[in-house]
Amino acid sequence: MGFTVGIAGLGLMGGSLAKAFHAQEDIQVLGFDRDETVLLRAKLQEATDGCLTEENISECDYIFIALYPKATIEFVEKNAPYIGKNTVVVDCAGTKRAVCESCFAAAKKHGFRFIGGHPMAGTQFSGFRYSRASMFDKANMILVPDKDEKIETLEALKALLVKIGFRGITITTAEQHDEIIAFTSQLAHVVSNAYVKSPNAKIHKGFSAGSYRDLTRVARLNAEMWTELFLENGDNLANEIDCIVSELKKYSAAIKKNDADKLCALLAEGSKLKESID
Q1: Are 217 and 192 in contact (CB under 8 A)?
Q2: What does the alpha-carbon distance between residue 170 and residue 222 come to, in Å, rounded to a whole number?
Q3: Which residue range is the domain that position 89 belongs to?
Q4: pLDDT digits 0-9 by tens, 78-88
Q5: CB atoms < 10 A from the CB of 199, how many?
Q6: In this predicted structure, what is the pLDDT of residue 166?
Q7: How many helices and strands, by DSSP H and E, does the chain display?
Q8: Do 39 and 92 reside in the same domain of the chain?
């Protein structure tokens, strides 16, 4: 027996989910996007079978919401009365505390299931045009279930995610998710974005190779989306920024003082830490 999967938001992440699910023979995909052109493009590219509406949303076995955090909350609040009692709703927002608090409450009130989600996949580009069915091949998926979620519901969701390529599933809390993501993802985007503001970035060609490419890959970003994500997780991200600034000041001080021993110790410390954590 097949599934009906609804996808709300057909940008990079939602579009990739739609294409990945639609590639499965037993899954029907219904899509929603505020941009009618995107909806048409998704239909023409056979990423969706039809539009997700208030009238048919109750038919979905699963609904994946690929919107910004605030828009995710608004979508759930607006559509909660129409979502089926057996439907499992999963969001894909990059922060979890505010989304999960609101959506857990809506799910309990209206009788459906809500599980926070965060696909560990993507590119530096955004929009449906860059989406692809292979986006989640060997990727990790973070899930944030409510404390009383049924194990059977989680296992069924895991099986569905594995079908479209996910290899690892991490179960955590909203609080732990936001704390760690501030370091593993958000800080990396801040550092990369700030790094290219050096005056020398304009003349890097001919002088740069892999190190420059690796550090600047995510400097090009969706400013509107990342602003919302950074501010939603401001406490954790600010702590991480303060931490790295403090460490950078140590390097700067050693270099300014021409202190080879101190600089060598700092470099060795970082190298050993990298080796130990990987």
Answers
A1: yes
A2: 26
A3: 3-172
A4: 999 999 999 99
A5: 6
A6: 97
A7: 11, 8
A8: yes
- CATH code for position 213: 1.10.3660.10
Q: What is the pLDDT of residue 122?
A: 86
Q: What is the CATH number of the domain that holds 14?
A: 3.40.50.720
Residue of higher predicted confidence among 125 and 171: 171
User: Are 259 and 153 within one domain?
Assistant: no
Number of structural domains, the chain?
2
3-state DSSP assignment of residue 171:
strand
Q: Which of 172, 188, 221 is the last residue of a domain?
A: 172
Name the token pair of 109: 């009130």
Are 62 and 161 within one domain?
A: yes
Enumerate the H helices of 23-134 as residue ranges: 36-44, 69-79, 97-110
Whether residues 117 and 229 share a domain: the answer is no
Q: Are residues 181 and 153 in the same domain?
A: no
Residue ending a domain, among 172, 190, 221, is: 172
Tokens of 278: 């990987």
Which segments of the chain does DSSP mark as H helices, in order?
12-22, 36-44, 69-79, 97-110, 151-163, 174-181, 187-195, 210-216, 223-232, 234-256, 260-277
List the structure tokens of 8: 């709300």
For 231-242, the pLDDT digits (tens) are 999 999 999 999
Least Cα distance to 67 among 103, 41, 43, 37 occurs for 103
**Is the overall model pTM greater than 0.90, yes or no?**
yes
Which CA distances in Å does 155 have to 10, 15, 18, 149, 163? 26, 24, 21, 11, 13
| Residues 108-138 pLDDT 10s | 999 999 999 999 998 878 899 999 999 999 9
